[in-house]
Known about the structure:
Elements lengths: L1 E5 L27 E6 L3 E3 L3 E10 L4 E2 L6 E4 L5 E3 L3 E3 L5 E3 L2 E10 L3 E14 L4 E15 L7
Amino acid sequence: MLFALLASLGGCPSSAKTPPVAGKAAVEPTGPRFDLAIESPTGAVKGDPGTVRIAVSPRAPWHVNLDYVPKLTVGPTAGVEFDRAEQRGDQAERFDADGLAFVLPFRANAKGTKRIAGELHFAMCADDACAPESVPVDFTIDVGCGTEAVC
Length: 151
């Protein structure tokens, strides 16, 4: 399942500034700064491992701030175990100016619909502004039985 969330505009001063190109107006960092995609399976089998990928894609003129350590956290979910319920930048699948992505491994131990909720913290920068971001991570996975007679 793929969800796309658009972030709203905001900002704070940046220590790293790129001067505008001579003879051209500076690009104003207006509109959404990034897209957030949560790629999760629509279903899972009780006892089998699964993964969810949470990715941030900057929108021009914004980029991921590499000086701000991103953090993904998910709260406890009955019937679901996470290999790492909290991850930081060095554990990200991708962490560069062009994107940020975390892979969240899990194992469902009970059948039914499981709602997983958490938060992703990171920062975006443009030429003259940086903005810390805190976005909710929220998705559901339907857990069923495999070929077992008793589940």
